[in-house]
Design a protein that fits this description.
Helices cover 53% and strands 12% of the residues. The longest helix is centred in the middle third of the chain and has 27 residues, at 198-224. Strand 2, helix 2 and strand 3 form a beta-alpha-beta unit. With 361 residues, it is α/β, with parallel strands linked by helices. The structure holds zinc ion.
């Protein structure tokens, strides 16, 4: 049995980090970067990215991401990259922009820099690309051959992003410790098709501890739009630690449930980290955690504004058929649903989803 650990070639985080873009690009002898950028932030951030690229800005081209990370969007932007003869892809934006840029990187086989503008999920550091259907349901998951060449996290940019995205990233980070334990405990492989290293296990624990200790102080930073030490630490947890943890230590029930949750139209607009946060409560119920443990975590959810019920995720209708459908789709389609050390079947999963919803309603 082999153990494997992977990571981005370089991770850089801090206020004003975006000014370093050109320096890193020049180490790769880049001539023409293609910037793939989110429409919503283009007017504010494109000038900053261009400034950060320095002399490369004259040769740089940019394309605006359409809003959904689909196969056709990846194909469209790959054609733009080929046409421009781009030798570096720079993905600037939220999770779906980043995943689309990664899809383009797979197609055009050039290096990729990731510049997340929100800390809403664990995708920036990883090789994974989650493609969606035009109806916003998870379609398929691809992998880049390598992790990103650079993940550049400018906390001055992130602290000004909407609060909901930041909270979602916290939800996504919270689950890693528990999913890692279940994936490793059940003998399943990580995303490098190998067993987890000791380092990966330590990272998943550090991710949870950091978020629990600093996320509430970081939320103050987001509300005042001023970076503080809690914010720097929490962002390191929600982007670097959360990403390294899932890819190197593996996933379990909490992330499996995003398959079922995202397939319900009313819940599909919930953010990935919001779905994971609810999924974690289901996983912990199935693990039979003591009520004192659950109460402590649920009160943290309350203070952070993380979803504890299907209604808080957006469900208006009857939760009983919804829970059954979420369980059915998750059971049939989620690749890590068997990465669990406790007895589980589709009915038990449905019952746990309903119990979490009802006990917290
Ligand atoms: Zn995630």
């Amino acid at each position: 049995m082999l153990r494997a650990f992977g990571a981005p070639y370089r991770y850089v985080q801090g206020r004003g980090a975006i000014t370093q873009l050109g320096e890193f690009a020049s180490t790769l002898e880049v001539r023409r970067p293609l910037i793939i950028i989110d429409e919503a932030i283009k007017d504010i951030l494109l000038p900053q990215v261009m400034h950060g690229l320095g002399h490369l800005a004259d040769q740089a081209v940019y394309a605006v991401f359409s809003g959904e990370c689909t196969r056709s969007e990846v194909a469209r932007l790959s054609a733009v990259a080929a046409e421009a003869k781009a030798d570096l892809i720079v993905g600037v934006g939220g999770g779906k922009t980043i995943d689309t840029a990664k899809g383009v990187r797979i197609q055009c086989k050039q290096p990729i820099f990731i510049v997340p503008t929100i800390a809403s999920n664990d995708s920036p550091t990883s090789r994974l690309v989650v493609l969606y259907t035009p109806e916003h349901a998870v379609d398929e998951v691809l992998r880049m051959p390598t992790n990103p060449d650079l993940v550049l996290v400018d906390t001055e940019v992130l602290v000004k992003a909407p609060e909901r995205f930041f909270i979602s990233g916290v939800g996504d980070a919270l689950s890693k410790k528990f999913e890692a334990a279940q994936c490793i405990g059940s003998g399943r492989n990580n995303f490098y098709d190998a067993q987890a290293t000791l380092l990966a296990q330590a990272i998943s624990g550090l991710c949870y501890d950091t978020v629990r200790e600093h996320a509430e102080g970081a939320l103050d930073a987001v509300r005042s739009r001023q970076v503080n030490d809690d914010f720097e630490r929490t962002v390191e947890a929600t982007i670097l630690l959360s990403g390294l943890a899932f890819e190197n230590a593996g996933l379990s029930i909490a992330h499996s449930l995003t398959r079922g949750l995202s397939a319900i139209p009313e819940l599909a607009s919930a953010l990935h980290g919001e779905q994971v946060a609810f999924g974690l409560l289901v996983q912990l119920l199935l693990e039979g955690r003591p009520s004192s443990f659950m109460e402590d975590l649920l009160s943290f959810y309350g203070r952070m504004g993380l979803p504890r019920t299907l209604a808080e995720l957006g469900l208006h209708g009857d939760p009983v058929p919804a829970a059954q459908l979420i369980a059915k789709i998750t059971w049939e389609r989620a690749p890590y649903i068997k990465a669990f050390t406790f007895p589980l079947n589709q009915d038990r999963l449905a019952a746990a989803i309903l119990e979490v919803h009802q006990s917290n309603s």
